[in-house]
Design goal:
Elements: E1 10-12, E2 17-22, H1 30-41, E3 45-48, H2 66-82, E4 87-93, H3 95-106, E5 112-115, H4 123-141, H5 145-151, H6 153-156, H7 161-174, E6 184-189, H8 195-206, E7 212-217, H9 230-241
Parallel strand pairs: 2-3, 2-4, 4-5, 5-6, 6-7
Antiparallel strand pairs: 1-3
Helix pairs in contact: 4-7
């Protein structure tokens, strides 16, 4: 049976401008690996933390919820401050984008870039994401159909409470977009669900940033940093940070 190696955080030390990179829900730091190495090659310090329960066996995800992952983000930002970085920009994908927007409402950041950000998610959709992730993980491991079926039981029986709290976290973040005044770039994939283009427009309209840009990438799906427009997106990120 295939053993999938657990993911690790990424920390690449460079100049005094640090970039915090936040991955998506049920994924891990590979979302941000190419972005981090490309930015580091330009001189930036890059730090991509791994949220608790992510990047390991799917069962780990059952022990944590949105407040734990938000705390991981707060701790990651504090880590960069403790390391002496005064100038911190943040890049977030999907739920990482939600965390980026939330952080910008409370902390003094240099710039933020958000990609594929939802402005709402139904609890059932969020639960389904975990179920799909667990099923795919077990399939890649090469487990038998009967073993997978048996191991999927706890995922199907997950209570929706944690997912409702997740939805409320997203909604609360969106209700305070007017607190954001830092320069912001908002990107979405034109091959993603159409709701993400609408989300991008809503965020663009409601932030109070004097410098703001919004752009769709025609070949990009949801995980924009890994797809066909990856190089173009990374170049756009570099241009915006500079």
């Amino acid at each position: 049976m295939l053993k999938i190696l657990p993911a690790k955080e990424i920390y690449l030390q460079g100049n005094e401008h640090a970039v915090l990179l936040l991955h998506s829900f049920t994924s891990h730091t590979r979302d941000m690996k190419k972005v981090a190495t490309s930015l580091h090659a330009q001189g930036y310090t890059c730090y991509a933390p791994l949220y608790r329960g992510h990047g390991h066996t799917p069962e780990q995800l059952l022990h944590y919820q949105v407040d734990d992952w938000w705390q991981d983000v707060v701790d990651a930002h504090q880590f960069l401050l403790n390391e002496g970085y005064q100038k911190i920009s943040v890049i977030g994908l999907s739920i990482g984008g939600i965390f980026t927007l939330k952080l910008a409402q409370f902390e003094k950041l240099s710039q933020i870039i958000v990609l594929s950000v939802p402005i709402d998610k139904e609890p059932a959709q969020l639960k389904q994401r975990i179920i799909d992730y667990a099923y795919n993980y077990k399939t890649i491991e090469g487990k038998s159909a009967s073993q997978i079926s048996q191991e999927m039981e706890p995922f199907h029986h997950m209570a929706l409470d944690a997912m409702s709290a997740f939805q409320q976290f997203i909604q609360a973040t969106m209700q305070q977009l007017d607190r954001i005044t830092v320069p912001i770039a908002i990107y979405y994939g034109e091959r993603d669900d159409a709701s993400y283009a609408q989300s991008a427009e809503t965020i663009y309209q409601h932030v109070h940033s004097s410098t703001k840009q919004k752009r769709g990438f025609e070949n990009a799906k949801h995980l924009m940093t890994l797809g066909r427009d990856q190089d173009e997106i990374i170049q756009e990120i570099i241009d915006f940070l500079e």
